[in-house]
Amino acid sequence: MDLRAIVTWLDEYLRIGAVPDYPTALNGLQVDSGRGEVRRIAVAVDAAQATIDRAIAEGADLLIVHHGLFWDGNQPVTGRRYRRLKALLDADLPLYSAHLPLDVHPEVGNNAVLARELGIEIQGTFGEYRGSPVGVWGTVDEVLREGLAARLDGLLGARVKLVPGGPERVRRVGVITGGAGGSVADAVAAGLDAFVTGEGAHHNFFDAEEGGINLLLGGHYATETWGVRALGQRLQEQFGIEWVFVDHPTGM
User: Fold this and answer.
1) Is 171 in contact with 194 (CB distance < 8 Å)?
2) What pLDDT digit, counting tens, does each position of 11-43 carry?
3) Which of 213, 217, 216 is nearest to 199 (CA)?
4) Rounded CA gap, 184 and 201, in Å?
5) Which residues contact 31 (CB under 8 A, 6 or more apart)?
6) Cβ–Cβ < 8 Å for 97, 67
7) What's the distance, CA 194 to chain centroid?
8) pLDDT tens digits, one per residue of 188-209
9) Are the C-beta atoms of residues 220 and 179 closer than 8 Å to each other?
10) What residues form DSSP beta bridges with 143?
11) How far apart are CA 227 and CA 99, in angstroms?
12) What is the sign of the dihedral through the CA atoms of 179, 230, 242 and 240?
């Protein structure tokens, strides 16, 4: 499949130009290539040196990530930025990044996919960034909060942190993956019994405890592997392209 055609499809499917994001996200094609044809795609959470090297070793013709190269802003091309770019350019490997557009996508987004995996019947959104909704919420068959935490443990393959600030029996659950502990107030305002995210600040414990909501922290990385994998599968269905997930967990 032609690289330009894939990039155009991704831009439209993920609504790259319509979903607001942080200025340094730079969603879309971040590193170009002279490659004309894409036969194999690698997907990863982060554009780290390890994932770039693995994608090259896997023989990928395109690397798609959730967290791109330029989070530290307008910086000189030295040090690790130089090394990452050099590896991509030497291998003629294009890099595509989608941050909030991949978080919020209703089909392959981190939030929607993790919510469905948790057994949540999605009914709406909550929280926003620059006027655009970021989280999803819905209902589960009534479950004890410890049972919901155990379900998340199984999905993520690690023990999650449960702040038992809300009702013992849970039905209304919201999800914002990644570092959304600061959205506890939005979850409380939405009338949720439990809020699932990746990580938060120390004071988010008290936000949940005093807000009357159960807070489940599953890890930033672990909660954000879902979108890139779902997108890889969607690209295979759309274009018949082989894909591989490059896993490089941080434990954070």
Assistant:
1) no
2) 999 999 999 999 999 999 999 999 889 999 999
3) 217
4) 11
5) 69, 85, 88, 89, 93, 94, 95
6) yes
7) 20
8) 999 999 999 999 999 999 999 9
9) yes
10) 170
11) 10
12) negative
| pLDDT tens digits, one per residue of 126-146 | 999 999 999 999 999 999 999
Tokens of 214: 């159960």
Q: What angle do CA 217, 145, 177 make, to 5 degrees?
A: 30
Does pTM top 0.90 for this prediction? yes
Give CA angle at 195 (193, 196), nearest 5°.
140
For strands 95-97 and 28-31, give the pairing: antiparallel
Residue with tokens 């499949």: 1
- Residue 206, helix vs strand vs coil: helix
* Distance of alpha carbon 158 from alpha carbon 50, whole angstroms: 22
Give the side-chain half-sphere CA count within 13 A for 116.
11
For tokens 């938060």, the residue is 200
Amino acid identity, position 162:
L
β-sheet bridge partners, residue 135: 126
Q: What count of Cα atoms within 13 Å lies in the side-chain half-sphere of residue 53?
A: 5
Query: What stretch of H or E contains 114?
Result: helix 110-117
Q: Which pLDDT tens digit goes with each residue over 58-70? A: 999 999 999 999 9
Q: What is the rounded CA–CA span in Å between residue 223 and residue 217?
A: 9
Residue 55 C-alpha from the chain's centroid:
19
Number of residues in the chain:
252
Return the structure tokens found at 167: 């009702």
Would you say 158 and 219 are in contact if contact means Cβ atoms under 8 Å apart? Answer: yes
| 60-108 per-position pLDDT tens digit | 999 999 999 999 999 999 999 999 999 999 999 999 999 999 999 999 9
**Pair 1, 239: CB distance under 8 Å:** yes
